[in-house]
Design goal:
Layout: E1 3-5, E2 8-12, H1 14-20, E3 29-31, H2 48-60, H3 69-76, E4 83-87, E5 93-97, H4 107-124, E6 132-137, H5 141-150, E7 156-163, H6 169-176, E8 182-187, H7 191-202, H8 205-211, E9 213-214, H9 221-242, E10 246-251, H10 256-266, E11 271-278, H11 283-290, H12 314-321, H13 324-330, E12 332-335, H14 338-352, H15 358-369, E13 379-383, H16 391-398, H17 406-412, E14 419-421, H18 425-431
Helix pairs in contact: 2-3, 2-9, 3-4, 4-5, 4-9, 5-6, 9-10, 14-15
The structure holds pyridoxal-5'-phosphate (PLP).
Length: about 425
């Protein structure tokens, strides 16, 4: 299958779409068409990697990665993504736990799949020449997932930029404990400075070609595609259990995760409603209300991985669905402020004795706001990170300690090191 920019332009193969990240015209790569699959085509497949290989096969058809796709899926999706039933059959509520990967957030899925694809593309030597340097700016979760996924891969180097003193202590540890082919740089500035530096480096032709710079940011289609697979798995599982399609509430920032859910439904999976939960960055719900797309600077919230004022993947969603009326027919959205996040974390802990992260809390809040009749559908809330990653927020609210899961505990036991740089391109270039 070929991939096109949301703004038109020439079709490219999937290898090129993955290695270049963004299209030359500034648009985002999307597949030229979406396959439709019948649920029966997944009969006998239970594991996430098997479902992913089946679902994604049409996208890789004709590419140099087609044959390796099952191995790529097995390697990348080697941790559980369980659907945990929380409440009864009358008002069935389940949580899709996306935090059992190495860095305890759903971004492990996309980052690991991207790494498995890129390392094969680089080894093949056709679309990229080793060594390549992946340059990534992070406000927290992305950098850790990318560093973990690419650590130790031959022919690929990773440089992570994070804002010094502005990520949670556990997030910082995940960014700085790798060594080997991963270089972590603390930028004396804010996330916006990190992002500006990355953009400036990509815009410098000499720097770009000398280091063969590649991006692994969340708009890379290689991160987006595999995210549809866990919606497929959860939807099929729920359909078998309740004989009805499931509805999803997705914590949303840059809209990659939510968009992957829309893709899964368009590909024929049994998915009913889709609701995007945002924090106080309300660009998406405001758009659905007013019809005006008004991106704006982000504001800081407790659900920091969702602090996005200009969600990039809206461009893909609009290209797929059409105008705002069509969009209202497909998805809904609601905003949740910090007080509501705090109250939800406390309230849900009282109900079920489970600590949820601030991002997951936005989706649980919207679930509790649904009218009773709506809650008779089977709903799935997507849990995007483990509460232990956000211990400094969750523990004081609950008055209990939240232990990291084994994978995270392992990472936290490693020594960490990083260098600091001024927020200038020269300083970055000197370290590349
Ligand atoms: C990145 C992230 C989100 C937002 O996902 P998008 O794909 O950007 O919408 C939500 N929760 C957590 C924990 C994240 O790391």
């Amino acid at each position: 299958m070929k991939f096109l920019s949301t703004r038109g332009g020439q079709a490219v193969c999937i290898e090129q779409a993955i290695m270049s990240g963004t299209a030359p015209d500034g648009g985002l790569y999307v597949p030229e068409s979406l396959p439709t699959l019948r649920p029966a085509e997944f009969d006998g497949l239970d594991r996430i990697d098997q479902i992913a290989a089946r679902l994604l096969a049409p996208f890789f058809d004709g590419s140099t990665l087609a044959e390796a796709l099952p191995a790529i899926c097995a390697e990348a999706l080697n941790f559980p993504v369980p659907l945990r039933a929380l409440e009864d059959r009358e008002r069935p509520l389940s949580v899709l736990e996306m935090f059992h990967g190495p860095t305890a957030a759903f971004k492990d899925v996309g980052a690991r799949f991207l790494a498995a694809c890129m390392s094969r593309i680089v080894a093949g030597g056709i679309y990229a020449e080793a060594p390549v340097t992946i340059l990534v700016a992070t406000s927290g979760d992305t950098g850790g997932a990318v560093a973990a996924a690419f650590h130790g891969r031959p022919g690929i180097r990773v440089v992570v930029l994070f804002p010094e003193g502005r990520v949670s202590p556990r997030q910082q540890h995940q960014l700085t404990c790798w060594g080997d082919n991963v270089l972590s740089l603390a930028v004396r500035g804010e996330f916006d400075d990190c992002q500006r530096l990355v953009k400036a480096a990509f815009a410098d032709p000499a720097l770009r070609s000398r280091h063969r710079l590649c991006s692994a940011n969340s708009i890379n289609v290689g991160r987006l595609l595999p995210q549809s697979a866990y919606y497929a798995k959860a939807a099929l599982e729920l359909q078998r259990l309740h004989d009805r399609p499931g509805s999803f509430i997705v914590p949303t920032g840059n809209l990659g995760n939510g968009f992957a859910c829309v893709w899964a439904r368009r590909m024929g999976l049994p998915i009913d409603r889709i609701v995007f939960a945002t924090n106080a960055n309300t660009t998406i719900p405001d758009f659905l209300d007013s019809g005006d797309w008004r991106p704006r600077p982000s504001v800081a919230t407790l659900a920091s991985a969702m602090d996005v004022g200009d969600p990039s993947n809206m461009e893909r969603l609009r290209a797929l669905v059409g105008d705002v009326d069509a969009l209202r027919g497909e998805v809904a959205a609601g905003a949740v402020d910090d007080d509501q996040i705090r109250a939800t974390i406390v309230d849900e802990y009282r109900r079920h004795g489970i600590a949820w992260c601030p991002h997951t809390a936005t989706a649980l809040y919207l679930y509790r706001q649904l009218p009773a009749a709506e809650r008779q559908r089977p709903w799935i809330v997507v849990a995007t990170a483990h509460a232990a990653k956000f211990d400094t927020i969750v523990e004081p609210l609950l008055g209990v300690s939240v232990d990291p899961p084994p994978e995270l505990a392992e990472i936290l036991s490693w020594p960490s090191r990083f260098d600091s740089i001024e927020p200038e391109l020269d300083a970055l270039a000197a370290r590349l």
